[in-house]
Specification:
five-stranded antiparallel sheet; 322 residues; 37% helix; three-stranded antiparallel sheet
C-alpha cells in the first residue's frame, strides 16, 4: 500500500525494475486519482512526509472560450471561482463575491456539475471517471494481490498460475486479464461495516476460488483470484489505518466481527464475540430496537439463547446441505 495512502507494510525483497514498473503503471496514477486526492484531503491523510494534499480542483471552460470556472472540491463543500479576464467577467455580470455571483457561476458550470454541488463526494466520484486510466486500478490490485498472496501462502506461491497471471497483469504492456473494468470506475461503493478512512484487504473463498478483496477508504475497489478455494494460509486479512500509519494482520472473520462489535459499542450496546469453526457475535438490543445489520440475522433473547438458536440453525442448514 503506497505510503501516500497511509501504507506502512512494505516487502523489501522486490527487484528495482518491478518496483519502478509498479509505481509507473499503478501507484502513481492511483495516488493522483481525483477521488483519492479528495478523500486524502478530506480525512487529512498525509504522505510519508506527513504532507496532506490540497483539495482537488477542476476547471469548466466557458462557452465563449474566454475563461473558466474553477471548481474546488472540499470535504465539507464545493467552492466556485471565476478564472477569467475582468472584461469577460463584466460581460457575464460577475462583479465580486456576492450571492448573485455565486448563483451565476453555478449556472456557468453546467447541469452535470450543478446537480452535484451539494454532495462533494459524489462530485469527486463523477470527475474521477474521466481522470484515471481504468487499467491502472487493475494493475494496482494485481500488485496488492501479489503482495498479499505471497504473505498468505509463502514464497512458493509465486510460481503458481494465479501469481503468474497477476505478475503478467502488473508487468506486461498487454491489458490485464483480471481487469477491474465495470460500469463504475473504482472505488465503486461503501462496504459495510467498514468505515473510511481505513483500508481493509482480505481473502475469502467464493465457490472454487480464493478471492482477494480490496476496500480502500471504506469503499470496494475490486477483487482478484489468488488461489484455489480452501488453500491454507498464514493470514487472510490486512487492516490499514492511514491516519495512524499502522497496519495489522488478522483473519477476515476477526476483522469483520470486531468492526461490527465496535459499531455496536459506539451505540451503547454490549456484544459478545466468539471465534471457532463458526465465528459469531451476539449484540444486545438497544433501548428501542435491535441494531440494523445488512443481511440475514438470527434473533435471540440472551447469549445463552443465542447459542441454542445457532445450534438449531446449524442443524437445519446442514440437513439442507447448505
Amino acid at each position: 500500500m503506497p505510503a501516500s495512502l497511509g501504507g506502512a507494510w512494505t516487502a523489501r525483497d522486490v527487484c528495482d525494475d518491478c518496483q519502478k514498473r509498479a509505481s509507473e503503471v499503478a501507484d502513481e496514477l492511483v495516488i493522483k486519482d481525483f477521488l483519492v486526492v479528495f478523500l486524502r484531503a478530506a480525512y487529512g491523510i498525509g504522505d510519508r512526509d506527513r504532507d496532506v494534499p490540497l483539495p482537488p480542483r477542476f476547471h469548466v471552460p466557458l462557452d465563449s472560450g474566454d475563461g473558466t470556472v474553477k471548481v474546488t472540491v472540499h470535504g465539507e463543500g464545493v467552492t466556485l471561482d471565476g478564472a477569467m479576464s475582468p472584461a469577460a467577467a463584466a460581460l457575464l455580470g460577475l462583479e465580486g463575491e456576492s450571492e448573485a455571483d455565486r448563483d451565476r457561476l453555478q449556472e456557468l458550470v453546467g447541469d452535470d456539475v450543478r446537480r452535484l454541488l451539494d454532495d462533494p463526494r459524489e462530485l469527486a466520484r463523477a470527475i474521477q471517471v474521466d481522470r484515471t486510466p481504468p487499467l491502472a486500478w487493475s494493475r494496482f490490485i494485481a500488485k496488492l494481490g501479489l503482495a498479499c498472496g505471497r504473505k498468505a501462502y509463502g514464497d512458493a506461491w509465486l510460481d503458481s498460475p494465479h501469481a503468474r497471471c497477476l505478475s503478467c497483469d502488473l508487468l506486461s504492456d498487454n491489458p490485464p486479464q483480471l481487469s477491474q473494468q465495470r460500469e463504475h470506475v473504482p472505488p465503486i461503493g461503501d462496504t459495510w461495516p467498514f468505515e473510511p478512512p481505513k483500508h481493509i484487504i482480505w481473502i475469502e473463498d467464493f465457490k472454487d476460488i480464493a478471492l482477494l478483496h480490496v476496500v480502500m477508504f471504506g469503499q470496494l475497489l475490486g477483487a482478484v483470484a489468488v488461489n484455489e478455494a480452501g488453500a491454507p494460509s498464514e493470514y487472510s486479512a490486512w487492516r490499514f489505518d492511514p491516519k495512524a500509519r499502522n497496519f495489522s494482520h488478522s483473519s477476515y472473520p476477526a476483522i469483520w466481527l470486531g468492526t461490527v462489535a465496535a459499531r455496536a459499542g459506539a451505540t451503547g450496546r454490549s456484544s459478545v464475540t466468539a471465534f471457532d469453526d463458526r465465528p459469531l457475535v451476539f449484540i444486545e438490543d438497544g433501548p428501542d430496537d435491535p441494531m440494523e445489520i445488512p443481511g440475514p440475522t438470527l434473533r435471540a433473547e440472551s447469549p445463552v439463547d443465542a447459542l441454542r438458536v445457532i445450534a438449531q440453525h446449524s442443524s437445519r442448514t446442514q440437513a439442507a446441505g447448505q
